[in-house]
């Protein structure tokens, strides 16, 4: 099981069942604000905004919250001033980690993220230290019971996807960011439900982890994911099946 795939699923399930729903709403509000700021407040014309709104609705964010976030992004309300920052570093076992940040105060966020790295035994690095190890891609995760492999492969490739990866309980549809919208539209038209969909960073190669290192890395990833300003976390680890079985015991 690929580390990236596993973490994507963990993060998705966690966001759905997280008791601290307000924290998840805060993150999604920021995503809506930036999408509206960069592409306008009409979800019919702004695909990124449409998907951010869909994510918010999926965890029952109130309509008023969504509309307020859109207005902040378009400048109709104050509070839309957010910086997009990419923090890079290394976690336990030399795992490369990328954190996509949306913050209204870099001076607050940077030391907080640095501390999470250091507590885990990792280190926040300089700009560019690990970003070159990742490719920016569109990623859709689909549960296996939603469709069969042959139909999904034909549909996705025809819509512009680059690859469809198959795991025990899910498919991953990978595309160039420019083709992501078309691939999503094709999947939606075919009435195939997605577990998650996002523009993310996928590692070119992965590092296999033993059980103890995997525990440390996952703990660090969870701490980063819990931070209010961290929108997305990518890492280049892989947890072999034997180690995964021990973690799940």
Automatic annotation (TrEMBL):
GO terms for cellular component: cytosol. Pfam families: TACO1_YebC_N, Transcrip_reg. Transmembrane segments: none annotated. Coiled coil: none annotated. One of its GO terms (biological process) is regulation of DNA-templated transcription. It is found in: Cytoplasm. Residues 5-76 form the TACO1/YebC-like N-terminal domain. One of its GO terms (molecular function) is DNA binding. Keywords: Cytoplasm, DNA-binding, Transcription, Transcription regulation. This is Probable transcriptional regulatory protein Pr1d_44350. Belongs to the TACO1 family. Its main location: cytoplasm. Residues 83-237 form the TACO1/YebC-like second and third domain.
């Amino acid at each position: 099981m690929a580390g990236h795939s596993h973490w994507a699923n963990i993060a998705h399930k966690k966001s759905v069942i997280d008791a601290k729903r307000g924290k998840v709403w805060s993150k999604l509000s920021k995503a809506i604000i930036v999408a509206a700021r960069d592409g306008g407040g009409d979800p019919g014309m702004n695909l990124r905004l449409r998907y951010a709104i869909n994510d918010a609705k999926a965890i029952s964010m109130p309509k008023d919250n969504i509309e307020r976030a859109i207005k902040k992004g378009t400048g109709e309300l104050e509070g839309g001033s957010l910086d997009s920052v990419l923090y890079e570093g290394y976690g336990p076992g030399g795992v490369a980690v990328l954190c996509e940040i949306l913050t209204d105060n870099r001076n607050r966020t940077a030391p907080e993220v640095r501390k999470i790295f250091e507590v885990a035994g990792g280190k926040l690095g300089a700009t560019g230290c690990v970003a070159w190890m990742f490719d920016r891609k569109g990623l859709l995760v689909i549960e296996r019971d939603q469709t069969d492999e042959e139909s999904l492969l034909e549909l996705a490739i025809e819509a512009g996807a680059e690859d469809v990866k198959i795991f025990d309980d899910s498919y991953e549809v990978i595309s160039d960011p420019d083709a992501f919208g078309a691939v999503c539209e094709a999947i939606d038209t075919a009435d195939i439900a997605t577990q998650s969909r996002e523009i993310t960073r996928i590692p070119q190669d992965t590092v296999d982890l033993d059980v103890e290192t995997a525990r440390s890395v996952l703990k660090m990833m969870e701490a980063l994911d819990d931070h209010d300003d961290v929108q997305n976390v990518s890492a280049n680890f892989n947890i072999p099946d034997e180690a995964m079985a021990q973690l799940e015991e």
